[in-house]
Design a protein that fits this description.
heterodimer, A: 302 residues, mainly alpha, B: 366 residues, alpha/beta, Rossmann fold, 2 domains, eight-stranded mixed beta sheet, four-stranded antiparallel beta sheet
Chain lengths: 302, 366
């Protein structure tokens, strides 16, 4: 009988729980690791300041970016015109800041759209597997192999160079990497026991994907979304430099580079300032992405 | 006492009369096959059993005996590589062959499951309270907001989580092992299921916590008047909570009996071997435990005849044990066994022999 009694302990459930260390939420741990990454914090601060300054430009930039003074012509940087003036005598500082509105807007919008599309495609492919996976991944491959510049040039010629078209085209060509990353994550997360437990409580596939699987892939998604901002800004600049991007009278940083290239021998500053802003933005966004990656993944300690 | 748990339903959801004594769950000739690279593997082979209202059925067996596959088959959670045949009826409704969409309203609502590894079974990114709330709101949309929160706190309280309101806002990693398992139980009973399947609910816990969790499960069963299927390889757990015991070996039932007969008059040599291998407080420390020689057979190559005969100390080899597969048959007292020789085998209750000096040694020599 003794052996039988071994498992039937009684009444122990009412004992008080043993004291525990003060609990720390996942968010607190994440924040601590992120703040530990000095470059990422620096990058984040610069990005936030940049967005605030650029989109609040009308409140503080002293000169009108469109006001011409043809007689003044191109001037080097001075106390009155911090970045000098361009060929039409327009204040170059005001122009760079206002052009940032287009560049940063495109960067953010493309990142958001391509992340949503990519995460959805990847999650569906990874979760359902089989034929759905095959079809979605072959479509992804198809998008990866098309010559992006050619597609962009054609699309922009056909639909016009408005920022909406540029955003949609860039997003349409930028979601594939996120889809692949998310699919890989979903393939591993969907085998976790809590997914089975969710099934056992009667959760539907949609609920399992959106509530149980995707939140567990948030790290790679956010990191990739961040990097997508940088890629979108660079791609837009490249396109605009080639003349396929934002069309006048709208101006982006890449667009300004295009205008400046003719004068590069005499007026180098026209090239440097927009280029500098592209460089700072992309660099800082990448710092933030690095920091996020380390913060989300405690194992990636250097 | 005002209990949130309603009386056992006299009618089902469709308003049809339900016989209160009819089995809640009837499994008949259940077969589960998996297609593998080495050919089909039969994980469960012709299993039949019934689960009665307010009964706790213990299912015992080694790894690979088909216990967990059976529970997954009931909920329809087996992977698509599995081929399920036979019949599983919940209150008369056939579950085998139902589509996902048709099974979903049952899962977690009428038939709920407690998994072995509570840490892995709780989603790490959601608060425990939110996960329990989800288990409720998947099935009923009328409970929302503060009412839902109150129900979650109440459920955590029922399973004995101290300070349930604060604990509901914590994440699974902030819970101790025993508390996690209790949270899983709270989730499983959230909709007052008729059938609670617990798959090795205490295996990952240490012994003191095991006792607490089992005590909670017993209390819950009495309160919700549900039927419980507890799957385990731990005979101590079965002895503590089960009313009836089903012993499985290689995908088949070898013995079904109420818990007393199982422990005092085991009729199958495998059950006898399991019982003989339990350590006893009154044995000398120098005594060696009896053991079942050999290993469980590979399901790919089951021995002919009785699957247990190569390891059985009483087998007639060559003879019917190695030639003819024993079917489950009735013994007196509701005891059922699948063994050709159970009448001829004598099981000596260990208590009577307790003063005998070297019982276990003798047994091993035999």
């Amino acid at each position: 009988m003794t052996a039988v009694a071994a498992g039937s302990g009684t009444g122990a459930a009412d004992l008080p729980a043993p004291p525990e260390a003060p609990p720390r939420s996942q968010w607190q741990l994440f924040r601590r690791r992120f703040l530990h990454h000095k470059l990422a914090v620096f990058g984040l601060i610069v990005i936030v300041i940049l967005y605030v300054l650029v989109f609040g430009a009308s409140f503080w930039v002293p000169n009108d970016p469109l006001e011409q003074d043809v007689l003044l012509g191109t001037q080097p940087p001075s106390g009155e015109h911090w970045f000098g003036t361009d060929q039409l005598g327009r204040d170059y500082f005001a122009r760079v800041i206002y052009a940032g509105q287009i560049s940063l807007k495109i960067g953010l919008a493309v990142a958001i759209i391509s992340t949503v599309v990519g995460a959805l495609a990847g999650a569906i492919a990874g979760f359902f597997g089989g034929l759905v996976d095959q079809i979605l991944m072959r479509v992804t491959d198809l998008f990866l192999i098309v010559p992006a510049i050619a597609i962009l040039a054609i699309a922009l010629k056909k639909f016009g160079g408005t920022d909406i078209v540029i955003i949609l085209v860039l997003a349409g060509l930028g979601w594939m990497s996120i889809a692949r990353v998310v699919r890989g994550q979903v393939l591993s997360v969907k085998e976790k026991e809590f997914v089975e437990a969710a099934r056992a409580i009667g959760a539907s596939n949609g609920r399992i994907i959106f509530r149980h699987i995707l939140p567990n892939c948030i790290g790679p998604i956010v990191v990739n979304a961040t990097l997508a901002i940088a890629i979108a800004i660079v791609t837009e600049s490249t396109l605009s430099f080639l003349g396929f991007g934002v069309q006048k009278p709208d101006t982006s940083w890449g667009n300004m580079l295009y205008d400046a290239k003719g004068n590069v021998r005499f007026d180098e500053h026209l090239l440097y300032f927009p280029g500098l802003f592209i460089l700072i933005t992309v660099l800082c966004v990448n710092f933030v992405g690095d920091g996020l990656r380390d913060a989300f993944d405690p194992q990636s300690r250097r | 006492m005002t209990s949130p748990y309603a009386d056992p339903a006299e009618t089902d959801d469709l308003g049809l009369a339900v016989d209160p004594d009819a089995p809640v769950l009837e499994v008949e000739d259940l077969r589960v096959e998996f297609a593998t690279d080495d050919g089909p593997v039969t994980a469960v082979d012709g299993l039949s059993f019934r689960l009665h209202p307010n009964e706790t059925l213990g299912i015992v067996g080694e790894s690979g005996s088909g216990k967990s596959v059976t529970s997954m088959a009931i909920l329809g959670l087996l992977p698509s590589t599995a081929r399920v045949s036979g019949s599983i009826r919940y209150r008369g409704q056939e579950l085998v062959g139902l589509k996902e969409r048709q099974l979903r309203p049952l899962r977690g609502n009428k038939i709920a499951m407690v998994f072995q590894d509570a840490l892995a079974s709780l989603n790490p990114v959601h608060r425990v309270g939110a996960q329990i709330a989800e288990a409720i709101s998947v099935h009923r949309s009328d409970l929302t907001g503060a009412d839902l929160d109150a129900r979650v706190v109440e459920l955590l309280d029922v399973v004995g989580i101290p300070d349930p309101a604060a604990r509901a806002r914590q994440y699974p990693h902030e819970y101790s092992g025993g508390m996690r398992q209790r949270a899983m139980i709270a989730m499983a009973i959230a909709n007052e299921p008729d059938v609670l399947i617990a798959d090795e609910p205490t295996t990952a816990l240490d012994v003191t916590i095991q006792a607490q969790v089992l005590e909670v499960m017993e209390r819950i069963r009495d309160r919700t008047e549900s039927s419980v299927m507890i799957i385990t390889h731990d005979l101590g757990v079965v002895a503590g909570v089960a009313d009836r015991v089903m012993v499985m070996y290689a995908g088949r039932t070898c013995e079904v009996a109420d818990v007393e007969s199982t422990f005092y008059e085991p009729a199958h040599p495998y059950t006898q071997g399991l019982l003989g291998s339990l350590p006893r407080l009154d044995s000398r420390s120098s005594d060696r435990l009896a053991r079942i020689v050999g290993n469980p057979p590979s399901l790919l190559a089951l021995p002919p005849g009785c699957a247990f005969h190569p390891r059985c100390p009483h087998a007639e080899v060559p003879g019917r044990c190695s030639d003819e597969r024993p079917e489950l048959r009735d013994l007196p007292g509701g005891h059922r066994v699948a063994c050709h020789r159970s009448e001829e085998i004598e099981w000596r209750p260990q208590e009577a022999e307790a003063e005998g000096a070297a019982v276990h040694d003798v047994e091993e020599v035999e």
